[in-house]
Amino acid sequence: MNKKFNVNDLYKPGKDPFKKFRKLSLPGLLIVFLFLIVLYFVSENPKIVETGVDINDAESLVKYEVTVDFHIDGDTTRFYFNDESYSFRYLLIDTPEIGRKSGEKDEPFAKEALHRVEDLLNDAEHIYVMFDQSQTDNYGRYLVYVFADDIMVNEQLVKEGLAEVKYVYPPNTTYENKMRQAEEEAKRKKVGMWR
């Protein structure tokens, strides 16, 4: 006959369930605390791989170090990945378009977005790209989150009102909530395109 589970069976009257933990000394507690801190940072920060991976074999949510070849606009940059230049499209964002054809005007904040990307990347000691689940778009551009040292450029542009959250297509949604929060903050502060 099966006995029904009762949570009260876990606690025995007169017995201290935390007795083992109370015996930990201050150094023991300190070690446990430090272990938890290390565990937090390891789980929050993606692994960084600097070189030696073919771009088509790149893993999701791993940072790869790159260098700038040239900037196309606020949401597209050509980076050198293992000494070859590729076009990279910043995930989950859209910046205003720069007029490319003769007589075509720039959209408002297009130049500001481009200059901000240039500033962030030029000031960075290290630049990383991180793929989500799908690697390329219909134009053959690599879809990435871009990091200037510890700053996610995609998110920073949204926070400053120089980009909006757009082109959110599963499964590339790892940072969707973070981007939407940044956009709400920009709208609330009325910065950039949200003035």
Automatic annotation (TrEMBL):
Domain TNase-like stretches: 62-195
Q: What keywords appear on the UniProt entry?
A: Endonuclease, Hydrolase, Membrane, Nuclease, Transmembrane, Transmembrane helix
The family database entries (Pfam families) matched by this protein are listed as: SNase
Where are its TM segments located?
Answer: 21-42
Q: One MF term in GO for this entry?
A: hydrolase activity
The lineage's top-level taxon is Bacteria
Q: Look up keyword Transmembrane and say if it applies.
A: yes
Q: What name does this protein carry?
A: Thermonuclease family protein
